[in-house]
Write a structure and sequence with these properties.
alpha+beta, 2 domains, 36% strand, RNaseH_sf, RNase H type-1 domain-containing protein
Length: 221
């Protein structure tokens, strides 16, 4: 989680000056703020995250304590598929994360009806990921999203426009959930080869093989 420090500093002639730091990891920002307070000239301190939420020093410290026991360092892979014969969609997701100093991998898929195309299945797959993150309790954190659907990722990042009403509805739903969970997204388009695990899960969903599993990863895993 990155924040900016907004520091109101009082000069020797009693003039209040408001300074804003660069983006810092929240833990580092708290340490810097502690140094500011040692000057004895701090009038006010506030921390602003990338979603525009303001935090006091006490609130930010408490949040970091809570996050330490919750999933963090989250990296997600997603993929969607579509069967033209059955008009069924399949979505797959793999979530890597750290919790209580241990690393985990969550694998899950789902079979969906009312999907009209392979493209729509990709949007549905991203929405499926958002549901998994909410269930895991991921919030107020950066999350890396990786998938071979460059269209979905480029549209979410704002690099490409979307002209389809149906797809825009998916994008609106996803972006609203990102804001609700205060997730700072990093979108990384990857190749199909790099997305094999999520692709396999989507295919298994289409075949009727539904999977939800979590495992702790060893150092070698």
């Amino acid at each position: 989680m990155e924040v900016q420090i907004h520091w109101t500093y009082v000069t020797p002639n009693k003039q209040a000056v408001r300074l804003t730091s660069e983006w810092l990891e929240a833990k580092d920002a708290l340490a810097v703020a502690g140094d500011f307070e040692k000057t004895g000239r701090t009038k006010a301190l506030e921390f602003m995250d990338r979603n525009g939420t303001a935090w006091s020093k006490k609130e930010l410290g408490k949040l970091l304590e809570e996050i330490a026991a919750e999933p963090h360092e989250v990296v997600v892979y997603f993929d969607g598929g579509f069967d033209h014969q059955t008009s069924q969609g399949g979505v797959g997701a793999v979530v890597y994360y750290k919790q209580n100093d241990r690393r985990y991998r969550l694998r899950a898929n789902r079979r969906l009806s009312e999907i009209k195309s392979n493209n729509e299945a990709e949007y549905a797959a991203f929405w499926f990921v958002m549901q998994l993150l909410e269930e895991l309790g991921v919030h107020h954190l950066p999350v890396t999203f990786r998938g071979d659907s460059h269209v979905v990722l480029k549209q979410l990042s704002g690099d490409w426009p979307c002209f389809e009403d149906d797809y825009n509805a998916w994008l609106d739903r996803i972006e609203a959930k990102l804001r609700e969970l205060h997730i700072d997204p990093l979108y990384e388009p990857i190749s199909r080869k790099q997305n094999k695990e999520a692709d396999a899960l989507a295919r298994q969903a289409l075949a009727g093989q539904l999977i939800t599993s979590r495992m702790e990863l060893t150092e070698k895993g």
